[in-house]
User: Fold these one by one.
Assistant:
Number 1:
Amino acid sequence: MDMCGNASAYTASSLVKQFHDFPHKSRDFKTVSSDFDPLDVTYLEGAAFTGAVCILAGSVLFFMILLYLCCCACRKHRVDYMNYKSEPGCHWGWAILFVAVCTCGLGLAYFGNEYVKQGVEAAAKAINDGNQTVAAGQVQVSSIIIDLDSSEQTLLNLEGAWIGKGLPTEVQQSLVDQTIEARRQVGNAEYEAINIRTTINNVFDAGKYAEDLKKYDKWRWEGTLGALCAIVALLCLIVLGVCLGSSCTLKLTAFLMLFGLLVAWAAAGGFLFVAVAGSDFCISPNSFVDRELEDMSQTYSETVKYFIYCQDCPNPFESDYRTTMESLNTVSNQLFELKTVAERYPNLDLSDVLADIAQLKGSLTDVQTRLQSLWHNQINCTSLNAAYKDLIASACGKTIDGAVYTFGAGCVIGFGAFFLIMAVQQHWTRILTDDAWFEGEGTTLLDSRNGSGKRRRRR
């Protein structure tokens, strides 16, 4: 009877609940289930819907600003040079304002990027902690199996050691039979220990997942940081162009800022997808695990559930552990009886037999001690359950929060870049108009022909 799944200390945050409630639509705009299932294409389409809408909005803004720049470039600019006044406009102020807006977005993006990195690193550490616990258990149980195999071989040799020692026939046969039974019990204990190792080996091998997770997140972190640095450089060039009144610098940076706008909205859509899909998982992580275990073997399912729900599930290793301990206790009693019988014949040369029995007794006592340590530490749910909870807390805490912050930052930078490009275009137009006015059409010149020093305005 399945007694698992009745308790969980994890509670989804309000942020997770909000993003879990985002609409999930397929390509034909039908509502799909928000139950997390990364192998279901329909679910992935639904989770990516809001991210796709975000990217689409960014694309619309990109083409709008591109069309605006094309119209400005094609339009013939006319100036009333008779009434023109070369006075600084407010466009530079708007440009600086939107530079400040984009800078705030960059700060939020950097904060979110670091938050995601910290969450992923904490999740990878939790996976590694669980994997190290399992690896220690594998080493422990393997050494136990080796010692049991060695003890079984010693008992096999002991069977023949009783013969030719001058013992009464009935006593000799009784000792041989007891030795055979002791060897059988050691074989049973070894078999159960192998079962424990097999269960551990079949279920847990998470080390590679932690390494892959850190590797992919390193690429993501470096890529996001590189994009942020590129946008910072563009903003610095815009400020420099405004300060120097360089129309060429402003034109170049405005053109490059178009790509910054696209990158910002693409990043916003990507992180929104991560936030929505992550929230779908984090709303009830155990439910997803339970669904995945439905098609798995009973042993696999019971073992995973035991470490997830801990005290709410029976220990799948308990039967093998208790059988092993019972067999070892039986062997210990039999070795004591063999020693007791052998000591009744002090006149016979049984020193080698007694030495083997003492060595076996010490070895099996050590095996029992290590088996108890294995039971209370490596195959007890406490350590792995703590690692699982740390994994969920990391994945559903800082990782989701960071994704949400970065999504918001992408939107801020995207809108800021849109209006910044328009402000920069207006400012470089003003600069070009001033240049044209000062270079001839509106310049006040000294009349060199009459040397009167009077100024006249050229038309």
Number 2:
Amino acid sequence: MDYSNASSSGLYDPFVASWSAFICHMMEVPMNCLPKVMDTGCHLCTTEEDIFGGPIEVHCVVADQQSSAFGQVCWDPGMVKLTLGSGSFVDFITRKPHGSGTGLYPVVAWSLQGELAYLAEGAAMSTGVCLEWAKSVGWFDNVADTSDMAKSVEDSNGVCFVPAMNGLQVPFKDPNACCSVFGIRVDTRRQHLVRAMLESFAFRVVQIIETAEEELGRTFDSIRVDGGVSRNDFLLQCIADLTGYKVMRADNLETTAMGAAFFAGLSCGFWSCRDLLKGKVTYSSVFEPRPDSVPRLKESRRLWEEAVSRSLAWYTHSDE
């Protein structure tokens, strides 16, 4: 197992770079059954010849979000990667493991030639889940239509959507929050509902970024984005407007696969150094912040935060 997967298991302590005896004891996991932790890119094994018709060397095993960050060439402290898929995963490259009181998770990003890199990750777990639910109840027929639907109305007409199908993570850490819709009126249309939902995804991403700015004590230059939901132009523009950061959408959205290929290629010598990889990732869609949109979005966010406060701790243990 490589460092990124070991760290993502929850049994590995990134602060001391070893399996955690305390967590293993608490979870009743015998430490002698845990695998050796290896570099993310190295010769791990060779497949049996009869599986693929010939032996194939395996040179990489890497965790999902860490691979995506590497595939986006997010290598240096201060860089930010955002994956918009089933959830919204915001990864901040750090020089050392970051201890957080609000739910940012410290993980090992990867290990190359024995050198560890780290990231702090914040997640909002209900992005794609909410979109699939909204489609199933008839808010839209095709997810690809949602950006144009949101743009077709001036605002959400007072509707607020709280995307908490799986509770609310950073900075609330509330598994008992409920998914909810506020402000429906007789003149509410599907377009208003869709716009409120997309804006809520942006608000959650912004909350995570603001949390990281405060905890890490720094601002950022840009946000590199991938994942299926990142095809939504309206959502990315909202994130750019609210954060004030340039949002760059990768032309190849499958950056997790790209990252794994990069690690394997470096390990087997296909590329001699990682600087050669920088030109392999391109961004033809860049969303610049629009200051004139900020006042309206801030007012929408103010109403949305009130809706969030009413959705927290909705469920109790007796309801589960």
